[in-house]
Design goal:
With about 675 residues, the protein is of the alpha+beta class. It has 18 helices and 28 strands. An 8-stranded antiparallel sheet has the order 8-9-10-11-18-15-14-13. A 5-stranded antiparallel sheet has the order 7-6-12-17-16, with no helix packed on it.
Length: about 675
Amino acid sequence: MACTSSPIPRHPNAWAARLVVSCALAAAHPADGQSLEPARIPGFSRPVQARWLGPEERRGGIPLGGLGTGFLELRPDGRVSALALDGAAAPTPPPACGIQATVGTESVTLLGTAPTRMRSRFFGHFPMADVEYGTRRGVAVCARAVGTLAPGDLERSGIPAVLFRVTVQCAADVPTRATLSLFLDGSAPPDGARSTLWQDGGRIGVLLAGGEGAPSLAAGMDAGGWGVQVRPNTALQGQIPRGRLEASATLRPGEERSVLFVIGWHPGARSPSRHARRFRDAAEAAARALRDGREIEVRAVAWQSGLYGRGLPDWLAEASLAAASLLTRNTVWPEGGAPRIRDSDLAASESLTARHHSAALFSALFASAHRQALDEIARTQAPDGGIPANHRDGAPPGRLASARFALLVWRARAEALYPAALRALRSAFAGPRGESGLITEPDGEAASEDGRPFGPWQWHGTAAWTAGMGLAALRAGEEMARAQGDSRLVAWCRQRFEAGRTAFDQDLWNGRWHRAYTDPDQFRDSESCLAGQLSGQEEAWLLGLGAIHGPGRIAASLRSIEALCMSAAKWGAVAAARPNGEPDLEAGQFSGDVLPGEVWNLAATAVLAARELADDSLRGMGLRAGERLWQGAAGAGELWSLNGCIGRDDARPYGAAHAASWLAVWNLVEALGGTAE
């Protein structure tokens, strides 16, 4: 079998052989972009469910890179379609580049800025992508691209590079000559970039840089046992490619060999990103990636193996890995600070909302960085204890943001921050009705500034989503105060929690569900059934804080959400539904269509309720909501574009792309008894 995926290594380089991609691709084997199928993937001890995409798939690509480093985007047709030099930079078309295979006199592009002409199929499973090409002139060819995001290893995750392992196997009866090459042109960085040779032990490559402090790109390879040739063109203009690396060998029948290539980048001295200070240029970054490539890939395989081995539904494992790609696409990592995650590719800075959505995954993979981020948030605390909803300078503190900060601190068990979290909690409940244990809705622009998930939808008075989060935060505050030995503050939190729980039901319970909001003072209310009305309860259960609502009302609310919000959508659940079952269109898409983050939180709430209330039918309800959401999103090409809204009937993706709310899927993983580690 060409390029066998047997888990038993046959090559003297055991690591290389273990990680070779299965390339036994029959000519008649169709690429199926709409279903999952079991596949034997190198490095994994058991088959995994893979969605193979063919080159005809018109989908966004998977971002490959590190944490806050920028990324290369690789598409199912083999195109490298975008390059971002750091986490804050907008992706741009990359310079001409490609990986090619030559057998005899025929050369074909495997990956690069031009699509492959070989029949191929592509399996993206962040932070990796496997590509199978089949056999060409008696040589089977396959490739694996690996980003540098290494779960549990913060330092290696900060390398701005992508690794490409290309493997060939002789399927002919006679020795066959094969050449693998990586070329890189210099249209970016700017004109005038010079091409120079670099070496690091047995690793070798080409650096393209416009001068000291300028952005740079580098190509490199580790090709032990191959005949190696490197061709940097030193001319400033007129000669392309300006860097080409070649590895050639004559393969005996049945012999298999691999070359590890790398593309690295550097944003230049003006960038505030950490990797701009850590590495002198792209060559230094590329060399480090090659040196650490084994450990990076092994960590990625081990993390995914753990996820696949948990017994999760296949669709959930796929959705979880797709959402995890936002850790590369949306993160910025400033020098001297913690990695921060933006709400979307339109956002300039991190918000409490994005940190909250990402907490389950971020804290499991990079606990120290997550705690450092909480430290930095605490340093933005206002004199009255309030916490801003956004990292940007001048952002005002908000009551909801302050409550969410308390929840984040308790989730992380960041004991050094308990005093700051408790001050934030006092600030959160200093407003109207604070003594009664409710965070009520601000009017006007302050609502959007405080981090609510429903965009411009204006709530009034007591709202189920916000007030529920406040109740969960009071329970977190009670536990933090108890850990601090502050009995007075324990009593303060308990008194407001009990009062708030009573007021919550008095204001919002209509006999079947908790209405979206009510403001009796101004005669304003909404009888709509909100998919996220129990988000505060989800938070309390995930954080070990117990029930904040009565069991009968939890169950009744979930049944109403199923009957109204889920029935009003073909995919997932609408954000809110009217009592007659129609979508609530008061705020257009933000109330009447599907908000993925809210569906994931609903699914997690129902799964947790099934355990707490001993009603397994609720588990089925939650998993149906999540599965319908992912089926719609994947079928519409949402594997890595991850838009903030999808159409309730057609799953059409719209709204901001790469929305951090998708990371709430990891709450469902946690609810099912796993962690992100």
